[in-house]
Amino acid sequence: MGRPWWYDSYWEKKERRQRRSRWPSRKSWAWLVLVGLSLALSVAGTGFQPALIAWLLGFISYFCRILAFAIFLRALLSWFRVGYYSWPVIILNDLTYPILSPLRRIMPSLGGLDFSPLVAIMVLYLIPSLFRWLVLLFV
After folding, report:
1. Residue-wise pLDDT tens digits, 96-105
2. What one-character DSSP code corresponds to residue 15?
3. CA distance linking residue 116 with residue 99, whole number of Å
4. What are residue 110's DSSP bridge partners?
5. How does DSSP classify residue 78?
6. CB 30 within 8 A of CB 94
7. Which among 32, 57, 31, 30 has a CA at the least distance from the CA of 45?
């Protein structure tokens, strides 16, 4: 049943559209901090010398190591009873969810055991060596 023909929408409360925030979301901040930390470590590891390929390889290496460590921490915390609404756990989930969720869809769980963190860590440790091999091949 609809509105009567004489109903005026003037009296209806109009919902104000919420303004979108111009600031990045919490997940974006976590990834930006991860990228910034990896970049700072890679630049500091080369002694601040302007070597673009060394910076790129160092960045990829540190990025994958930090991400693998975050996945390891998340897997370790899953064994213990922790508050899932505390900010360190939320940030770990924000960082590792985009990597672990596709693996969980692909891999079957074996008796309630989740092997997706193990596979993700192995892949993350293979990525820097693959990039080094590609750089040596093309340079």
Report:
1. 999 999 999 9
2. P
3. 9
4. 113
5. T
6. yes
7. 57
**Tens digits of per-residue pLDDT, 23-56?**
777 788 888 889 999 989 988 887 767 788 888 8
Q: How far is CA 7 from the centre of its chain?
A: 50
Residue 7 is which amino acid? Answer: Y
Tokens of 86: 């505390």
Q: What is this structure's pTM?
A: 0.77
Taking 3-state DSSP, the helix, strand and coil percentages for the chain, each rounded to the nearest 5, stand at 65, 0, 30
Distance CA 129, CA 135 (A): 10
Which residue, among 22, 23, 38, has the nearest Cα to 95 in the 3D structure?
A: 38
Most confident option among 47-56, 82-91, 121-130: 121-130
Token match 């540190």: residue?
A: 62
How far is residue 122 from each of residues 5, 25, 72, 113, measured CA to CA in Å? 67, 29, 11, 17
Contact 107, 126 (CB under 8 A): no
For residue 45, CA distances in Å to 33, 36, 115, 120 come to: 18, 14, 33, 25
